[in-house]
Structures are given as structure tokens and as C-alpha cells.
Design brief:
alpha/beta; 8 strands; TIM Barrel
Length: 337
């Protein structure tokens, strides 16, 4: 199974570019910009990755971004992730980025997206990995700030496939951003929102995503299993759920393998992703491997999760069919062997 998972053609739909900032790159960029980090060594920084809930993770996550200042920083960040993803046989990735986390520090939106775009174009040519960007709004900031960021994105709309909503969910329900997402839909963006695991009022938030906002996908969404009506709606609409098992194990002390298996049995299109792999020390292969080794998921269940990702990806049908065929060819060859 190790080799089977390692070489399985994959799509990743839930990865935060800022969450791919490896400690070594943090120190490299800090030295470049003359920034003094709180930790003396890479090992010291890694020891600080002792998260027990979402807020404890976000505190370190946002502080680490201080080293991302110029266009080349964002190029390096994205290139390192895409190089790793290509090594793990990711054929296609939809990547989140958080412009407000940078513009609030005085880094221009254009600086951020141009650096990311350069890495995407190079990765397409040199690594053969296809990518699209999803702009995420920080839900603990105001709806006005989100709307201003949406308007800032329009000159670069041809580089962005959709918008999302992330950061601290407590007291920041989806409906807070109803008008922003309505406007984003008018601009032609696809819509997704985080509904993190075991958050306050999480069922109400999932309900708002489905019935008020009208999302095309839900990020995380594990708690939907607590409400059969929500499960039925998600299954009937064919909505994707981007689950991040190792992230869940850090934040809620549970790999959620049983929940993922149950989603599959209910016909829900669960997918497996890495979330913030530099912090949770697991890219997509390690997440799939953990589900098999610790969660007991079978080869067929792993394949179904990967197939679901291609099915719910924001792709045109020609590209989707090509990726699904490559996956099926790989599975058939291994079955024959």
C-alpha cells in the first residue's frame, strides 16, 4: 500500500499556500529580510507546533507569515509546495491563499498573486502539475474588508477560480459574508467555505452554507454527519467535502477515519487533503497513508477518495475525464499485477 498510495495519481483541493511554509524557508526568508524570529533553530520552531485546537494553531500560523514580503518570497513558497506535490503524484491542485493576511501587513495584493502565479506557470511547464487559485477571506475580519479584497481581485480574475472563507469560525458565521459571496458569484467565482470540525454552532454554519450562501463545496464539514438532513442534501447535490485527516488529529485529536468511511457509505463525496502540511508534518500521501495504516481504510476506499477529488474539482469536463482515465489506468494495472 505504501507504493500504491505514493504513485497513485491525485488531486488536492484543500491546501493553504501559507500553510506550506516549511521551517527551513522561514529561516531563509527571515535572514534575507533581516527579521529576527522568535525561535533560534528549526528544531525549536518545530517543537512549537504543539497545537490542541484551531486558535492555538492560528496564533503561530499568522505570526509565521511575517517573513513573506516580496514577490519572490511568494514564488518560493508556492514553488516548494508544487515541487513536493509533484513528487507525491499530485496532477492537479486547487490552492487557497489569504491576501488579507498580507495586505494588512502592507504587502500589496499584486505582489502576492504575481509571485504565486510565476510558480504556477513554471510548475506547469517543468513539473506537469496543473493548478488553480482560490482566494480565501479571513472570517475574523469584517465583511467590508472581505468585499474590498474581492474588488481588489477583479484585475486578476483570470488567475482565480473561486473564493473561500477560513480562519477562526467562532462568532463568524457564513451569513456574515452573504453579500460578499453573492457578489463573488456574480463575478463568476465558484464558492466554498470552511466548516471546521467541532466548532461552535457548526451545524447551523453548514446549514447556512447549503441554504443561504449556496456553496459549490464545503471545506471540512465532518459534523454534517450529526444531521441526516444535511447529509442527504450534500449527497443529493453532489457537493465535495475536503477533509484533512492529520490536521483533524492535531486540532480535535481524531483522525476522523471512521467519519470519512461513513461519508463514503452515504454517497457523500469526501476527499482527502493536507490543509497546512508544513505545520501538521503531512502532505497528501501521508494523510492517505494514515487513513490506511491507522484508520483501516481499504485500497478501494482510498481510490474512491482520490476519484472523488477529481469528480468535484473545478475543472472543465475534458480535463476531468483525462485525469479520471489516468487514475483508472493506474488502478487497473495494479489490480492486474
Amino acid at each position: 500500500m505504501n507504493d500504491f498510495i505514493a504513485n497513485l495519481p491525485k488531486a488536492e483541493l484543500h491546501v493553504h499556500l501559507e500553510g506550506t511554509l516549511e521551517p527551513e524557508l522561514s529561516f531563509e526568508l527571515a535572514k534575507k529580510h533581516g527579521i529576527e524570529l522568535e525561535y533560534a533553530t528549526v528544531e525549536d520552531l518545530l517543537r512549537a507546533y504543539d497545537f490542541h485546537d484551531l486558535p492555538s494553531f492560528l496564533r503561530i500560523y499568522y505570526k509565521a507569515m511575517s517573513v513573506l514580503l516580496d514577490e519572490d518570497d511568494f514564488f518560493q513558497l508556492t514553488w516548494q509546495y508544487l515541487s513536493k506535490a509533484a513528487q507525491q503524484r499530485v496532477l492537479y491542485a486547487e490552492m487557497f491563499f489569504d491576501p488579507q493576511a498580507h495586505t494588512s501587513r502592507g504587502v500589496a495584493f499584486e505582489t502576492v498573486i504575481r509571485g504565486i502565479r510565476r510558480a504556477q506557470e513554471r510548475a506547469s511547464l517543468e513539473l506537469g502539475i496543473d493548478t488553480q487559485l482560490i482566494l480565501c477571506f479571513l472570517r475574523d475580519l469584517s465583511a467590508q474588508s472581505a468585499m474590498a479584497t474581492l474588488e481588489e481581485s477583479i484585475p486578476f480574475k483570470h488567475w482565480i477560480v473561486g473564493v473561500g472563507l477560513d480562519s477562526d469560525e467562532k462568532g463568524n458565521p457564513p451569513v456574515k459574508f452573504s453579500e460578499v459571496f453573492r457578489k463573488a458569484r456574480q463575478y463568476g467565482y465558484r464558492l466554498t467555505m470552511h466548516c471546521d470540525v467541532n466548532q461552535e454552532n457548526t451545524l447551523a454554519h453548514i446549514h447556512q452554507c447549503l441554504h443561504t450562501i449556496g456553496v459549490d463545496r464545503i471545506d471540512h464539514g465532518v459534523n454534517s454527519l450529526e444531521d441526516p438532513a444535511l447529509c442527504a442534501t450534500i449527497a443529493e447535490r453532489g457537493l465535495g467535502l475536503t477533509i484533512c485527516p492529520v490536521s483533524n488529529r492535531f486540532v480535535v485529536q481524531n483522525l476522523t477515519a471512521a467519519e470519512i468511511r461513513r461519508m463514503l457509505s452515504l454517497g457523500m463525496r469526501a476527499t482527502v487533503n493536507s490543509d497546512d502540511p508544513a505545520y501538521f508534518r503531512a502532505y497528501v500521501n501521508e494523510n492517505l497513508q494514515a487513513l490506511h495504516d491507522e484508520g483501516g481504510l481499504t485500497r478501494d476506499e482510498i481510490v474512491q477518495l482520490v476519484s472523488n477529488a477529481f469528480t468535484v474539482a473545478w475543472l472543465d469536463e475534458t480535463r476531468r475525464a483525462s485525469y479520471v482515465q489516468r487514475l483508472q489506468t493506474y488502478v487497473d494495472r495494479n489490480r492486474a499485477a
